[in-house]
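BUG-230 | component: ligand-complex export | severity: low

The export step for S-adenosylmethionine jobs runs without errors, but we want the raw record kept on the ticket for reference. Input record follows.
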Amino acid sequence: MKFTDSPVIELPVRNAVLSLQQDNGSMHVGTSVWPCSLVLVKFADRWAPPLPNTSTGTESTPNPYSDLFDFRSKRAVELGTGCGVSGMGLYLLGLTNLVLTDIAPVMPALKRNLKINKTVLGKTLKYSVLYWNKLDQIKTLNPPFDFVIATDVVYIEETVGPLVSAMEALLSDNGVVLLGYQLRSPEADKLFWELCVKVFDIEKVPHEDLHPDYAYEETNIYLLRRKKKQ
Ligand SMILES: C[S@@+](CC[C@H](N)C(=O)[O-])C[C@H]1O[C@@H](n2cnc3c(N)ncnc32)[C@H](O)[C@@H]1O
């Protein structure tokens, strides 16, 4: 499934189906659902260990991501959540202590999607306004977090510096940035990776590990971890 004009997108996650409402006509990109978010959720859906009391009988299959996706007792924050797809999907996979963030104009689209999916999620997830360059807003979230989630957030060169700084400020020493990435702007791309390589060790998830129904050639998942101090 590629990015679509359909006003509603259905995303199966484990035994549930998220219903995602998007408005492609708005001037804010966050009111649309972007493919990286679907790819990240379905990658995690493929590998996240089953939740307690939901044995599938396949637990003995070797799982290279069982430690990564052991969400027990972990805290997470999502940057540029848009319609909230990644956060809601990972919540369904057990990442229950999380807060979704975006700029103020995107909040109505996020709130609408949280409301539509409240029954599936069992509650309204936490959300907060966060502009990447606002240190006070970052502090209010009470970092550090075990996971920083970010999908399709690298597309404007001017915001790349604040984005990487926000990731750094939010991530715990042993934390992981779950990044869904697609090249949107060559300038933003170049700067983003130049900055990232200074602070993070970068692991690219092999395409064959993505969910086969949600693996697009142009979309990648990266795992960013803080470089260890020498
Ligand atoms: C292309 S959308 C991706 C939305 C969502 N993550 C997805 O994958 O469907 C980029 C998101 O980043 C947010 N964003 C862009 N610049 C931002 C900034 N400076 N501070 C906070 N959020 C920002 C936008 O509002 C938007 O929701």
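Assignee comment: Attached the raw record above. The helical segments are 35-47, 85-92, 107-116, 118-121, 135-140, 157-170, 186-199.
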